[in-house]
Design goal:
heterodimer; A: 7-stranded mixed β-sheet; 4-stranded antiparallel β-sheet; about 0% helix; B: mainly beta; 6-stranded mixed β-sheet; about 55% strand; globular
Chain lengths: ~120, ~120
């Protein structure tokens, strides 16, 4: 069964360092998303991406964050200069369509710890 | 704008007992509603979704949910809990409207279900 895969599963980084979280969406999907879940809090939307550009982003997604689809398969989230409060589980998701009734398939997440 | 409230961050039931996880939503447009489950060390898996067809929706693993517009609720139920149902459950809403926000899911805070033998 097709699935969204994320690497790495865990990442520890020092404050101020850049990190890149990687995702391989399901191959025929066109819409890609990043969400995050700070420990004990809600899963929060970060950004959606379609046709090689951001279609929507949340207030959390400031200039420190960027997304890219560098080739035909990967979808990456870059955090330019990490802060302690960026520590969270980051989920990548993809969907075949962008319509409201379309299921989003989620990866297993990358746990980012900023020390 | 949409929001979701899940009542009860922890629910504990005995094996074989009814599972009821509560979800209330707020949406300025007709919503699409989803329940996701997260098992330990795994990603979010879709259990079921309401997309304005039948109000009673059946999902995987014996779960079902009923959309009640008058109560703005979408509670998740299962008649008989199994040990393997222990997980965290998330209710989510998505706007049923055009525009750029149709892809975005807004999640509740999650409910951890514990099943006792």
């Amino acid at each position: 069964e097709p699935e969204v895969t994320q690497t790495p599963s865990h990442q520890v980084t020092q404050m101020g360092q850049e990190v890149i979280l990687r995702c391989v969406p399901i191959s025929n999907h066109l819409y890609f998303y990043w969400y995050r879940q700070i420990l004990g809090q809600k899963v929060e939307f970060l950004v959606s991406f379609y046709n090689n550009e951001i279609s929507e982003k949340s207030e959390i997604f400031d200039d420190q964050f960027s997304v890219e689809r560098p080739d035909g398969s990967n979808f990456t989230l870059k955090i330019r200069s990490t802060k302690l409060e960026d520590s969270a589980m980051y989920f990548c998701a993809s969907s075949e369509l962008g319509t409201a009734n379309t299921e989003a398939f989620f990866g297993q997440g990358t746990r980012l710890t900023v020390v | 704008a949409q929001s979701v409230t899940q009542l009860g961050s922890h629910v504990s039931v005995s094996e074989g007992a009814l599972v009821l996880l509560r979800c209330n939503y707020s949406s300025s447009v007709p919503p699409y509603l989803f329940w996701y489950v997260q098992y330990p060390n795994q990603g979010l898996q879709l259990l079921l979704k309401y997309t304005s067809a039948a109000t009673l929706v059946k999902g995987i693993n014996g779960f079902e949910a009923e959309f009640k517009k008058s109560e703005t609720s979408f509670h998740l139920t299962k008649p008989s809990a199994h040990m393997s149902d222990a997980a965290e459950y998330f209710c989510a809403v998505r706007a049923n409207a055009g525009g750029t926000s149709y892809g975005k899911l807004t999640f509740g805070q999650g409910t951890i279900l514990t099943v006792h033998p």
